[in-house]
Structures are given as structure tokens and as C-alpha cells.
Amino acid sequence: MSAVFDDSSARPGPSGLDPAPPAGPAVVGEGASTTPQEDRVHRLLGGLKRKYGARITGELAMPAQAARFAELPEGLHPRLRAALAARGLTRLYAHQREAWERVQAGEHLVVATPTASGKTLCYNLPVLDAVLSRQAKALYLFPTKALAQDQVAELSELNQALAGMERAAQQSGGISPSGSGSQSIARSDARSDDGGGQRRKGGGGAGFDSDTDSDPDPDPDFDLDSDRCRQGDCVTRRGSLGIKAFTFDGDTPGDARKAVRTRGDIVLSNPDMLHQAILPHHTKWAQFFESLQFVVVDELHGYRGVFGSHVANVFRRLLRICRFYGAKPVFIFASATIANPAELAGRLIGERVHAVTDSGAPRGERQLLLWNPLVIDPDLGIRASARSQTTRIARAATRQGLKNIVFARSRLMVEVITKYLKDVFDRDPRRPPRVLAYRGGYLPSERRSGERALRAGRVDCVVSTSALELGVDIGALDVAVLNGYPGTIAATWQRLGRAGRRNRPSLGVLVATSDPLDQYMVRHPEFFLGSSPEHARIHPDQLLILMDHVRCAAFELPFRDGEGFGDCTEDLGEMLGYLRDEGLLQRQGPQWFWVADSYPANAVSLRSVAEGNFVVIDTTDGKQTIIAEVDYSGAPGTVYEGAIYMVQSQPYQVEKLDWTGRKAYVTKTRADYYTDAIDYTKLKILAEFDRRGMVAGQRGAAADRRHFDTDTDTDTDPGSDSDSETGSGAEATAAVAHGEVHLVRRYPGYKKIRYYSHDNIGYGNIDLPDQEMHTTAVWWQLHPRVLAQAVAATFGSRERLVEGFLGAAYALHHVAALRAMAEVQDLGRAVGDGQGRWFATVGADGRGQLRGPDNQPLDEPPAGGFEPTLFLYDNYPGGVGLSAPLFDAAAVLVADALALVRDCACTGGCPACVGPILPGDEQRVLPPNALALSVLALFAGGAAGDHGDGAGSEALVAAGSSPQRRSDA
Amino acid sequence: MSSLRERLRRVRGEAAPGAGAPTEASRTRPSLTERLKRLGAARANAPEPDPEPAPASARPPTAAATPDRAHDEAALAAALGAERLAPGVLRVTHSRPLALAHGRCALHPDPAAVTLLQPDAPADPAGWVALDTETSGLAGGTGTWVFVVGLARWRTDRLELVQYLLTRLDAEADLLAQLNTDLAAAELLLSYNGKTFDVPLLAARLRLARLADTASDLLHLDLLHPVRRAFAGVWPDCRLASVERFLLGHERADDLPGAEAPAAWLDWLRRGDGRRLGAVLAHNRVDLLSVAALPARLAAAHRTPAAHGGDVLRIARWWLAAGDSAGARQLLAAAPALDAPARHLLARLHLRAGDWRAAVSLWEPLAADGDAGALEALAKHYEHRAKDPRRALAYARALPAGPDTEHRCRRLMDKALGNLGPHPDLIE
Fold this sequence. Notes:
Radius of gyration of chain A: 29 Å
Strand content of chain A: 15-25%
Domain YprB ribonuclease H-like (chain B): 131-295
Oligomer: heterodimer
Number of domains of chain A: 5
Number of strands of chain B: 7
Strand content of chain B: 5-15%
Number of helices of chain A: 27
Helix content of chain A: 25-40%
CATH topology of the largest domain in chain B: Nucleotidyltransferase, domain 5
Number of strands of chain A: 35
Distance between the termini of chain B: 86 Å
Largest interface: A-B, 75 and 59 residues
CATH class of the largest domain in chain B: Alpha Beta
Distance between the termini of chain A: 26 Å
Order of helices and strands of chain B: HHHEEHEEEHEHEHHHHHHHHHHHHH
CATH superfamily of the largest domain in chain B: Ribonuclease H-like superfamily/Ribonuclease H
Protein name (chain B): YprB ribonuclease H-like domain-containing protein
InterPro entries (chain B): RNaseH-like_sf, TPR-like_helical_dom_sf, YprB_RNase_H-like_dom
Strand order of the largest sheet of chain B: 1-2-5-4-3-6-7
CATH architecture of the largest domain in chain B: 2-Layer Sandwich
Largest sheet of chain A: 7 strands, mixed
Number of helices of chain B: 19
Structural class of chain B: alpha/beta
Radius of gyration of chain B: 32 Å
Strand order of the largest sheet of chain A: 1-11-18-17-14-16-15
Region (Disordered) (chain B): 1-70
Organism (chain B): Thiohalocapsa halophila
Largest sheet of chain B: 7 strands, mixed
């Protein structure tokens, strides 16, 4: 972002950087001479289509889009205008101007435009103007420390842009000498994080060419403490905008913090610091809060689920504090494309937020292919692996000189694909590597050096998890290959957007795996290409999260009777009473005062519910070197003893796991296999919130209505117009309920899988404590009489019935993920009796098995009744509100699952409908898909003829093995 | 409210969750408490338990657990010998003759001592205020209360101790306003660790009460810093109790440990039990007396550190930093035994004063022990000042091997052999 003006003006073709803007909208890109890059992208595209036409199920070509410009606002502070001009920016994109107008009108705003469309300037422009013209202060929040440090570097450059010009013009007086403090702090942060390299996020504004990266400016030797800054520095800094932008994070040295609090015009931080360090000490920030006029929240789309729910509560606290200081800041959000940016932002702050979504930035031509590997075995529905196709496309792109990125859905898959590509391109260890793996779990320094290598163009192919979805600047790429559907449409576009910048054509390929959701997507390209991205959802009133923040809020300022907590719907008085009974609060008059000797924010992590990351320690050669970190929830499935753990595709074997010390000791290995943990889950129902009987007839024309007595009809909500539930007096074959469950996940062992052939070459045991969780779930059960009759008449045995449940669970899980607009891993599934006495799993023989509480095989279910229950649970402690909507949509889900299984092209069941099956199963009298269909038909109220309209799916796995699908960046 | 309690009782009466069949499970939405309790079991960050947990089921909700009712403040005031300034604010005043010893020390104001430690301090003790607080904890942040503010001021023949005790949370603004009044005439604060603890906390409380922050901008002599300078390397720790034991000669008897002060206050807030508050105030008064007595002893330790067991080197450096190198030199010279770094410093000071003989006499025994710094200093001395390259060479040869040493030796060799042409290194 810096010093790019000269470079880019020398480029062929018009760009936003042209010093003299054409009158009216300009067409960008069309006049550009065809670059070699463009040829290569088209050549690759043509080659793929020629050779592999049968695998391409969908194609989308998006023509280059012209830029729409707008003038800089009249009222813009002249010095800001001059600073922008110094960087070659003399006009805006249309959406940047729109954002400006809305902010001037005092509206909260969310800018949701594509990658590299200049979102940053949408907030920087009004903020910098307000800082210059009325000493406003602004708080910028980024989800990570690194992104905040990127941004301060960019601000500093803008800040200094004027300096050179004004010095050249021999102007010296009149401008306050400052900026050195901010510089020094920003630099010190950068230094501690990555050794001083500056990262720049692309897409600053119409005039900023993000394709160009430049070396960091040589930095004068700044004194850390700005109060002690030397006069010489101040003199050299004269002429800058004089805006002090400071990062404030865990790396900010203690002696610099006071300067940040009292002198910062713009403080760049993250929600965790706001939560743990700023709000609980708000009196130290009094000056800052008194003048706080803007809160900028970038990467809004990341504020979903647990994290988003926490942050919504942090904002409730922030707004309380702002009210105390008489401030009413305007919020400006920036987001990648999601369906509901305004709604999400509005939920986060409990106020109306306006969306700016119509980007005026130009885009290069974009090509998208949907790619389905060929069917190898039609009986089993087995296709060639997505991994092989992905590596093939990445190889072709790399060979043609196209920079490319491969997105994989798990850290493990990142390592496997990286290894395969390195085996081709990085065989000579004396040469710098052309292939790079990038994922969460690597140390920050390693990630930073990877980012630098990418920006500098030293890497031809990067393989990443969702970690690179974020706005980390990695420069421009030509091709994006997605190994598997990322789970949401929003994430898909976000990843595809990594390829293609302003004036270049780009290619994206979505390679389907055999997971149901992937198959649904590639077989129904119109679903993907025509649908809007998902809604990002949060659940700020999730009880545990809410209580955590009410506790923190009570610490920060006493609550008064009658006061609310944002738009929280729980009874605040009841919560405060609870905290008083815990000894934390004391009520006096109308106020609730904090009296405990504790600092509650320290006990609350915004990111996860369980604490304590594991470090992976390499003990090869007798030394101890930390090579990676694994988060708590991922640890049992990745660093168990015997596991092969890979870093940059170098395999390490876990020798010892210190569970309490959160350490995994590994050594380098040359194993020719990788490992995959097996897990199983048992569930116990704690409380049932609601229940409905399912009766056929209301929806399906061919309802095979059977009448059974039911004890559930009294619970039916008579006012509900849901599709197929009991009217009063009607009789149900099945019931659906939702409520709270206790869940135990156990990892009994792991599989060893050979590279390339992917044969399973052995098993190992895992000895780890159970992972426990309370959460919410929706579950289905059959009426006992229906059950008995079905076992006798349809299934023939309980084992077959249980297999039917498992297949139905597989299908329901995936359609539920689609309907709930959640990612598949946000939900879990299980089949058991609901009391933890037995659960069902698919055994190695492919048959449904009953297992006891300790995973021992059971021949018979324990005495006391056989009540198989199918669970879909919210995969977060306490739940994040996923199961209640599933309960409401239960009838639709069952219909969708029926359609998914029935419409599948396989003969007896396959990973795209009911899960993998064994050879020969399709020849059984009742193949797995028929068993699942029968169960689903019973769930639908006995009606078997319901064809729901589509239901994609996806696959986490049968209740058996979990291939580390958390793309935990 | 009643439903919450009812639901609470139900959950407590229940067996292990999920013992019943799902159809028997509760059909209604459980209470907040019940929901939290279940979820909390799976959480690492369960709320910290009350140090003295009052089982909610064991007491009716409006009884002692609910301290909305006013406690008997008048009785407490009487027991503490306090006057009630406002509802919720008690003031306890003590007066102590200056000649009455605190440990080995009297309490007379010592302007020379104070201005030694804080050069810009006013010499008139009328403007001095010693400050010490008791707080609801050490966690910091806006949730930490200051419930006792103790001030000590010098009057003509006595030290006046005034303590404010907060007995109602909603009376904090009254207490703080009173404090601001008292500090209005103050020119210097004296404290022990007040700069980082007491004053920032008071500043937070004042800000919360929307009152002016009188404390933060006052000139402040935090005695912890000179204590650390003089004794950090000598004593096991620098807690005030250690200061009293080693420097003031005072042993506390029947002292309420500071850590118990928050609980004593919570006893009062929650149950109206103020029995331990008297001990808290007594503890606070001892703190104030120690702060009041400390400057004189500390100044003495800075003048003659050796006599007080202080860290001679660090104190000498402090004198030096204050611009008094003669003072630093005298102080080092007067010390009976010096370690190597101190001897180096003294030698440097001798040199600066032109007394190179004294410097050499310090270096020589060090050099005899192989001290590289002394060897190098002597090599330089004999080369440049005494013009005796042979002796210089003897010292230089004992220096640790390395390119510098080699270079130096070669140069000295040249000089010793009489090749006394202008050597480039001499110019540097």
C-alpha cells in the first residue's frame, strides 16, 4: 500500500490510480492490453475444459466489471484531501462515497463488498476526517492482532504521505509535531510479532494498487515511550497528518500503554483486549471514551457463532461504558459477503445498521468451475478422490506459471495436499520452496514469514485452511482451488475471492468430495450459483455467555434497578440476584455493586469455551522446540499418543501427551502413513423443552396413516401451523423434541492410513479422558408400538433398525446443516437411547452395533425398554441456538432427508446420502438406503411419499470416525 | 422471584440429571439457576465461589444473604470510636505525640530527609500527607473498592491520623468528596507503593463517582522506590513489614494480615458483622505510622548506606544520577567493604576527580584476581597516562584472548620495542 503510486502509474491500462479521473464512469480493464497472465488463465481454463469436460458440472463466467467513481466529498478536511492526493487518490469508488454520506448522517453502517474493493477507506475516510476536524477518537477492532498491526501500518503510511510532499515544498511550521509515538508503538508491536516486517492489506481505496507491495519504509530509531521521544524525531515528523494511531494488544509494552490511552486518536485493538483490558479499566480510558465517536469493526463476517455471541455482549458492555462517559459512537462495520450483514451488525450492537453492498470497485474477469470427480464404482457411489483432482489442477496451474491457492477443509488435508505438491515441485531441497502450507496451529512467526513469502511472490502455490479467508494480505493470486465445499456459500465466495484482483482474470474451481453436501452442490449448480450466501447467526442471549458478560458488566459499573443490558431478553434482575447469591454483588438501594475480589473478565474467553491450548514440542535431537499449537477441542483428535502430526508436511509422531500440562511431545518420523482418530459420542437427555408428535397426512398425499396412541399430543402447540404435527386427538407415529443434553465424546482409537493408496493399515488405541459437554439438541423417537411393529414387520431385527437410524442420522445431519445455515461441524449427531445406557455405531463390519456406556459391544439393549433416539446436537457447550430452529423445521428436515436419500443415484447407499457402505451391502434385501428411508418415513409420520425439495448435505462422518473436519484456522 | 427459588429447590432435590426417562424429564423450561448450574458443570470458568459461601437453599432469600437493609451503623461507630460524617461514612481520628516512638523511630517531620528523597518536595511539613488505603482486593479494575482511606498529617507536636471507613456502598461519593476536601491543601503525598496501587485505585473511584481526581496530580513520594533501591538486594523482600522489622525496629503484634481486610469488610456488608473492622483500622494506622517514620531512616540509609545495611553501589549510583559524584565517591570510599562493581565505580569516580593513584590502587588487587575490566583499565593507564608500555603490556597479556587483546598487545609491543611512529590506533 505504500509508495505504490509511481509503480502503478507506470502500468499499462487505466486503473483507479490515474491521477486524472475520466469524466463519468470509466471502464476499467477493457482497454488493457492482454497480459500474459490473462492468456495463461484462459489457456488453463481451456485445457481443463477440453480434457476434463465430463467432470465439469457447472460453469460461471463473470465478466470484468467497470469501476464506478465518485468525487471526493466537498467537506473533506483539506489536509486529508492533500494526503490522499499525495498517494494518488483523487476520487472514490461509488460505495466509498455512499459510506461517507451515511456516516455523515450519523448512521451505523456496514460495508459488505467483495475482497479488494476498498472497504478500508470506507471507514478510514470519515474517521480521519473527524479526527482532523473535530478531535474525534476512534476504536478499531480486528479479530486478530496481526490484522490490527497491518492496519496501523497502513494508517501510518497515509499519515506520513503528506510529510514528504510538504517537506519538499519547504513547508515546516504550523503543524503539530506528532505521530512519532504512534509510529514507535506500531513498530514495536510489529517487531515483537514478526521481526519488523509490515503487512499491508490490499484494497485500500480507488487509487491504491493493492497488487504492489513494497519494502517497509526504513524506520528512524524511535524511542519506545512517546513521552520521551527526542526532538529530532518530532522535527522529522512535522508535516504528517499528525494522527496518532496506536495498536493496543497483548504485545503493547506497559510503559507505552498510558500513551495509547491518553494520546491515541485511533486505537486499534481486538475484541479480546476490549473485553479483558479496556472495559474493566475504563476509568483509565476516560479521556478516550469521552471523545469516542467511531467504533470500526472489520471482518464482521467472522463474528458468528460463539465468538459473535460473546462479542455482541462485549458491545453491550462497551455501550454501557460509552453512556457513562456521554459518548454515542457510530459503528462502522466491514464485512465479506454474507446474506445478512445489516442484520448481523444490528444484532451485535442492538441497533439499526445500514448496509452498503453495491461495490463500485472494478473486478477482473472471473471464471468458476464446479468439478465432480468421476464415478469409479457406481454401485458403491465411489468417486475418485477430490484430493487427487485438486492436486492435479494445482499442478497444472503451477506448471503454467499461475500463482494459486488451494483451500482444504482440515489441517490434516492441508498437510496431505502440501506433501503431494511438494513431492512434485519441491524435490530439490537446495532451492527455495515453491509450495507452502498455511494453517492455524503454526507459530505466528512461521505464518508471518509465509505471508511475506507470498506477498513477495516467492511462492507459487499455497495450501491453506480457512485461515487465509481472513483479510491477511498475501498479494494477488490467479487461481483458487477449493478441495471440497467449505460448508457455506459465504465461505466459498470468500475463498474464491482470494484469486483475482482488479485487472486480471482469474479462475476458481470448486472440487466436490463425496460428502453429501458437496454432491448436492455440484449436481445442482443452480443452487450454488443462484443462492445468496448464508446468514451469519449469533445468539447473544446464550445463557452462559450472557451470564459471563453480565458478571463483567457488573464489575465495570454498578447496575441500577430497571436498567437493561442491551437488547437482552433474559430477566436482568434474576441474573443479578443470582450473582448476589454467588457473593459477587451487593445490593444497596437501587444499585447492584460488585464486591468480590476477582477480575471476572480474566475467566471469560471470547473464542472458545474450553481453555488451554496444547503446544506441540519437537524433541528430535534431544532439544525441545515448540513447533505448533493445537486448540483444546482439537487436541484429543490430533495429538493423541501415536498420532502422526504434520507441520509443513513433515510428519512427526506423538510420543507422549501430557494432558494436564497441555503438551504433546513429538519426534520426526518417516512413517508412510497418517492417522485418523475414531470418536464416538453418547448422549443423555437432561431436560425436554418441547415435544411434538409427527403425523402423516397434512403434507404428503400418499400418507400411509397409521394410528397409534400417543402421550405427546398434550404438548403440542395447538396454534402452530407447522406442516405435519398432531392436531389435538390425532395420533403420532413418531415424536420430535428438543431440550438440553449431556454429551460425552470419547476417542477409543485411531486408524493408520497409507499415503497415496489410502489403505487402512492398522489401528492404535487412544487413552484420553472423555470430553464432556452440556448443550441443546433436537431428537426423534418412534412411538413404542410403532417401533415394535416396525422391527417385526419392516426391519426384521433391532440391528437393522439401528442401521436405519444411523443412515437417517447421516442424511438428517447434512440437510440440517443446510437448513440451519450452519456449518456441518456446528452440529453433531448421535443415535442412542437418550439415557446414556447404549449408543449405536457402525462397526468395522459395516453393521450397526449397540455399544454400552464403556463402548463394549452389546448383544441386547439393556433391560428397561428399547427406545432408539436420533440426536442432532448443537456442537457448542451450552448451545448457540441451533437446535430450536431445527425443532421448528423438523418436518421440513425429514422431508429433505427423504428426498436426499431417495433421489441419490446410488443403488444401496453411498457417502452422498446415508454414509459409506461396504461392498455387497447394496445387494442386501434391505440395503442401507432402504433402511434409512423406512426410518425417515416413520419420522415423517408414516408417510413415505413425501418429496422435499432438495436437501444438500455434507459429511462429517458416521458416528465412527471424524476426519478432523474442523477447519480451525 | 419465588419461581426462581422454587426451581432452585427442584433442581437441588433432583437426582443425577437424566436419571429419568426422557418422557419423565421436565417439560417446562428450567429456571435460570438450574440452567446455569447444569451448564456450569461443564465449564472451566465457573464463577468464583464466595469465600464464605452462603448456601442459598439454607437461608430464606431475604435474610442475611440479602443485605438491602441497613446495618447498625451507629453501633459500629460507637465500637470503633468513630464519628458518622454521613450515612455510610465513618471517620476515626487519632492523635499521636511526635516523640512517641514507632519501633526505634520518632515521628518528627524531617524536611531534609524528604527533600533528599524528593528534591522538589516542599520543605514545610504542613503540606505533607501520608496516605494508605485498604481495598476490597488486589484484582484491580473498576470492581475494586477502596473502603478505608487513612491520612496522616503533621501538626505542631503530634501526628494526626484520620481514617475514613465506607460502611455503605452507595455512600462512596460522600467519602471521596471528603477525601478531596482533605487533600485540597496537600502539597506532597507520602505512601508505600501508593503510586502504582492506592492512587490509581482512588483515581478510578473518583472517576466513577464523577469527582475531580485530586490525588493523581499531587507530588508523590512513594517510599517503596527508595526502599527497593537501598534494600532490594539485601532483604528477602520489600514488604512494609520487612521495612518495619529491618529498618524501623517495629514488630507488629496482633496485626490483622492485610489479606484478610477484604473479608472483614464483606462480613460487615453482608451480615452486619463489623467485629474485625477495628483490626483493619488498626492495621491501617500502623501502615501510616511506618510511612510517616520512614523518610528519616531512609534518608540516613542513603547518606550512609553501609551503616544501615543498604546497597552501597545502587545508592552511590543514585547519588551519581542526581549529579553529585563527590557524594557518591565519599559514600563508596567510606564503605568498609566493596564488591568488584562498586570498586570499579569508585575507581571511575577517583579518575573523574583526577585521583588516578587512588584508582590504580583499587584496580591492582582486582587485576591480581584476573578481573578483565581492571586489567584493561590498568593497561590503558600505563599506556596512555603513565607512558609505561612494558607494564601496560604485562596487564594486556593477562586479558582474555581475542582480536582486541591481540591488537592491543601488538601495539604495546611496538611501543615497548621503541617503534614509536604514530600508530593509527592512537589517533582514535
